[in-house]
Design a protein that fits this description.
By secondary structure, this protein is an alpha+beta fold. It is 21% helix and 41% strand.
Length: 164
């Protein structure tokens, strides 16, 4: 009972208390003349848990960080399919199956996309986590062969377009 009083949001539908930093990174890597593109997201474990709890409350199962991704992989993939939209040369490429690695309090969420061999443009919409955390920023780093691009996505600027 004392635990519930001291930590009222732990068992509720609300996100964890404010932790001050709402940040993730998106790294997109593409080698010249390859159709494979790697996307890696670095997201805080508790933020992903809160967002999936909000996204699919009926399917949410409380679990530890080591089991969470495995248990909720379907919901995680559905969530990012709606909140991470990528266009390469004006062609929409859907996010597919995710893999992950747990490092301390961060999930490294990985997607491999089949994209054009040569990029002229890439457009990214990354508004994930912003429905719960309005101060969320998603920092993007793109490597297309030897060319690099950087940007920041936020609630006020959810879309970026880069030319190569």
């Amino acid at each position: 009972m004392i635990f519930c009083f001291l930590f009222p949001n732990y068992f509720g539908n609300k996100p964890n208390p404010v932790h001050g930093l709402y940040l993730s990174t998106i790294k997109i890597t593409h080698q010249n003349n390859s159709t494979a593109t790697d996307i890696q997201l670095k997201v805080f474990t508790n933020d992903l848990q809160d967002v999936i709890h909000n996204f699919a409350p009926e399917e949410f199962k409380a679990s530890d960080e080591k089991q969470f991704f495995y248990i909720h992989q379907k919901q995680i993939e559905q969530y990012f399919a709606q909140h991470l939209i990528c266009q390469f040369n004006s062609q929409n490429i859907p996010i597919g199956q995710a893999s992950y690695e747990l490092k301390n309090d961060v999930y490294l969420v990985n997607f491999i996309l089949e994209t054009p061999k040569e990029w002229k443009t890439i457009s990214i919409k990354a508004n994930y986590f912003m429905e719960l955390f309005p101060m969320q920023s998603n920092i993007i780093h793109i490597e297309n062969g030897k060319e690099k691009r950087f940007g920041k996505l936020s609630k006020n600027s959810e879309n970026l377009k880069f030319s190569f």
